[in-house]
Design a protein that fits this description.
- The structure is a single chain.
- It is globular, with a radius of gyration of 17 Å.
- Helix content is 31%, strand content 23%.
- The termini are far apart.
- It is built from three helices and three strands.
- The protein is an alpha+beta fold.
- α2 runs antiparallel to α3.
- β2 and β3 form a beta hairpin.
Length: 107
């Protein structure tokens, strides 16, 4: 259990959601690619999605975001974002094991 202090001025007009009570979770990560590999990125990201789909049976493919896409062009690299939702609570061993499985699938 943790106590978080947030000033009222930051909460005004905001909607708060306690994600620890949710039955679904999201894992968001970024990958970096060299500009020399830019033509390979779309196929690589499609392969990443296929591997995550095979490795993670709790993946939600419909109704929630499941994306692997180029998200920004930085000075020294191209950044891609992987955004996955899973039919798992946001806490506990199942969450962490699934997160690890997702990262291993990306390798």
């Amino acid at each position: 259990s943790a106590v978080v202090d947030i000033p009222n001025s930051q909460l005004g007009g905001q909607r708060l959601i306690n994600v620890t009570r949710s039955n679904t979770c999201r894992v968001l990560t970024t990958l970096r690619f060299e500009y020399g590999d830019i033509q390979k990125i779309p196929k690589t990201l499609e392969a990443v999605k296929e591997e995550i789909t095979k490795a993670c049976p709790k993946l939600i493919c419909k109704g929630k975001a499941f994306r692997a896409m180029i998200s920004s062009f930085e000075r020294d690299y191209v950044e891609a974002t992987i955004n996955c939702s899973f039919d798992l609570p946001t806490t506990g061993e199942d969450f962490w094991a699934n997160r690890e499985q997702m990262f291993l699938a990306i390798d």
